[in-house]
Design a protein that fits this description.
Blueprint lengths: L1 E12 L5 E10 L2 E6 H10 L2 E7 L2 E4 L1 E5 L2 E5 L1 E2 L3 E2 L14
Parallel strand pairs: 1-4
Antiparallel strand pairs: 1-2, 2-3, 4-5, 6-7, 8-9
Length: 96
Amino acid sequence: MVRLVVTGVERMRDAEGNVRLAALHGINAQRHWRLTLPEALLALRTGRYAFDVDCQGERRRAEVVITDGSEHLSARSPAHGNLFDVLPDVYAQTST
């Protein structure tokens, strides 16, 4: 199993104005990576990848949670709630 450490996220607003995760950013073997949320969910479903969320001195394993028919990622912490909510924003670099 490949463990990918999540250190930041990209967020975006959906059609209703709610803030949603758009992509995950992290590091593995000293290499930076970025996966869109659909790519991350697919990677988790294969069983070959696991995401460890590293935030505010805690590291928790991410899991898929289904609410109202939608899949979401969660990494619950007793001290901070869902660590995805407190991860720093990372802005995707685009080439010009």
